[in-house]
Amino acid sequence: MIPLLRKKVAMRAGRGENGPDGCPARKTRLLHQCYAKLLEGWNALTADVKVLQWADGLWRRSWIVLAGLLSDQPEADTFCCDGSQSCKVCTCPKSRLHEPVEFPLKSAERVRRQVYRAADGMMMIHGQAKAAKLFERDRRSDVKWKPTRHCTKAGYERARKALRGTHLMENAFWGKTGFDVQLQVMSSTKLLTSYLCISVHICIYIYIYVILLHICAYLCISVYIYVVSVYISPYMCIS
Ligand SMILES: [Zn+2]
Questions:
Q1: Secondary element (H or E) of residue 42
Q2: How far is residue 168's CA from residue 81's CA, in Å, rounded to a whole number?
Q3: Each residue of 95-139: pLDDT tens digit?
C-alpha cells in the first residue's frame, strides 16, 4: 500500500475535497495506477504452471494465484474505489449496516459494468436532466480517464452517489483471473468483529484463505499472492 496523501496538505495547496480531481479520487487513482503497472500482463504470466523451488528445497510445479487483499477500512475503500462506511462484499445500504439482514453479494464485474456505463453516459442519474458522457476512458488500465466538459464536481458526485459511492475510474484488480476485488478484499476490522461475534451485519464471505493465516497477519495490509503446489508429491522433485 502506498502512503496516502495528506489530505489537509493537499487541500491547502488548492486541491478540492470532491470531484474527479479531489483528494479522495486522486489518491485512489494513484494507488490503482501503481497496481495496474505492478499487475501488467498478470493473466498471461500466471496462466501456466511454473516449476518453482519452495522453502523446503524441493522444486514443484506451482500455480500462482492472486488470493486476496487484507486491509483496514480506509485501504479496503481504496482497493474497491469506494466511499467509506459501505460493505464491500454485499449491497447492504449504509443505513441498515447495524441490522442482521442479508443482501445480495457484490461482484467486481457488475461494479465494473456500472462504472463504465456511468462514465460513458449510459446511465440515468438522479438530479441530472439527461445522461451525459463524463469520461473518455482509456483502454490502458494505468492511464487516467480524461474528463469531458460534463464532468463537473457536482456531476461527478451525482454519478458517485448513483453508484453508491464508487469512484469513476479503472480498478487495477478488475479482470484478474480468478479474483473478485469485491469478494476477496477483507477489512481486518471486520475480521476482528467477526471473531468476537459483535458484528450483526452478515455477509456470506467467500474466503479462499486459511483463517489462521489471517489471525497471524491481522495487522498487515497486504496483497496476498499465493503459490499453490499443483501436485504435492516427492515424485515431482526435479532437482
Ligand atoms: Zn455486507
A1: helix 42-45
A2: 8
A3: 888 887 888 889 999 999 999 999 999 888 777 777 889 999 998
77 CA distance to ligand 1 centroid (A)? 13
166: cell is 464508487
CA–CA distance, 78 with 116 (Å, rounded to integer): 18
Instruction: Enumerate residues with CB within 5 Å of ligand 1 (an ion).
Output: 87, 89-90, 92, 203
Q: pTM score, two decimals?
A: 0.77
b/e 163-182 (16+ beta carbons within 10 angstroms → b): bebbbbbbbbbbbbeebbbb
- Using alpha carbons only, what angle is made at residue 171 by residues 17 and 191, rounded to the nearest 5 degrees? 85
Cell numbers for 152, please give them.
Answer: 463537473
* Per-residue pLDDT reduced to its tens digit, 194-235: 554 444 566 654 444 434 444 444 434 455 566 555 443 333
> 195 C-alpha vs ligand 1 centroid, how far in Å?
16
Cα 27 to ligand 1 centroid, rounded to whole Å: 25
87 CA to centre of ligand 1 in angstroms: 5
**Domain-by-domain residue ranges, the chain?**
7-236
CA 184–ligand 1 middle distance (angstroms) = 12
